Amino acid sequence: MTTLPLSGIRVLDITQVMAGPFCCMLLGDMGADVIKIEPPKVGDSTRHSMGFRLKGEDSPGFLALNRNKRSITLDLKNDADRDVLYALVKTADVVVENARPGVAARLGMGYETLRELNPRLVYASISGFGQTGPWAQRPGFDLIAQAMSGVLSSNGFPGMEPAKNSIAVADLGAGLFSVYAILSAIIGRATSGEGQYIDASLLEAAMGLSIWETTELWGTGKSPTPIGSANRMSGPYQAVLAKDGWFVIGAANQGLWLTFLKILGREELQDVPNYSTNAARVANRIELIADLAPTFLTRTKQEWIDAMLGAGVPAAPILDYEQAMASEQAIARNMVMDVPHPAEGTFKSLGFPVKMMGTPQEVRLPPPLINEHGEEIRRELREQGLLPPEQAEAAE
Question: In sequence order, what are the residues at sequence separation of 6 or more whose Cβ sits closer than 8 angstroms to the Cβ of residue 296?
């Protein structure tokens, strides 16, 4: 039997919605024992936040972000339930919380309090804007972080309504950056013997993922502006219109550009000074695409795609999510899973986006029902002598 790399690591997931649950789910996928601590009765707000259900009570959003976890409900304003949390902290390696700065400390679960119980604890706080700075107390959501990081200003098309990135880049980015920091802290703890505090934010995640866009700011002195599907550093590299619809091309270097022109039968453009180098093509992108547009309209998108792929020039159709998930590549790479669930029967979920040789990734636990493992977790703590017998009953 293969041991997963994070087997033996316990994570207390005191988070809701997206960034924190995503972070903890990824740790659970790698073998960590993730205990999701939820408010009594209502649980994680994402259980009820979407306008549609499958079969059970929990929303598809909750199901998507909470596999490989156990659930216990605790009222952290209640002394007895806080004692359960403290008992769990003594057994834990990681705590992840995403309350507004200061709230965790007021509930008696701030880093300084919990490190007294467990000096080896790695404690991650995920918030909208971080724990310090003049914006720290502002409420933070993905849209807000996209707006205040620069992302929203550079997305979409010129002169049109601002377009949010449809993927929650700030939320999911904060979750990913937190996983990276947590794993680094666990590795560092092996040498130092001590845990540490991690301060992650949606704002800084969105900024961190803007590493390409900021090069334009600092290289030209001007903020990036919306350019639709085009690329800021290469051209032509964008969606173009064929006889029957849109597809994408990526003639992103000089060799590909020359091959691309042969496919189009437009070799005369290689002698045009405005298109002679990649830098020139980027600077004159709008003019270039206007010059190429009539040619693209002479054939169907599949004809162009087949011709370009046959010559080694990147090109692709624009698939919607239904088409993408049903594609032969997604199927070959197991990117859609049927997950068994006590209330749903089975539901579809995204597969694991990274494959690791020797690490069999699987859904060991379906997304938990609220407080599904409350008594099981309390029993474990009693058996370790960390809870008295009167803590036998789960919170109502």
Answer: 240, 241, 242, 243, 304
